Amino acid sequence: MSQLRVTLKKSVIGQQWRARRVVTSLGLTKINQTRTLPDNGAIRGMIHRVRHLVVFEPVTEVSE
Fold first, then answer.
1. Are the CB atoms for 53 and 32 separated by under 8 Å?
2. Is the pTM of this model over 0.70?
């Protein structure tokens, strides 16, 4: 299964409550924190909602 690497690049301070909740749901709590998440429609929709706060890229290799 393909995966995405999502990094929080901007603070959620001053953002709408929906954006803050989506960032928290993605598992991001601090600036420059990175999470590897599955590439599916739900995650893509969440990233689209907060695309002004995060940067994402596909993961080519899975490190364990």
1. no
2. yes
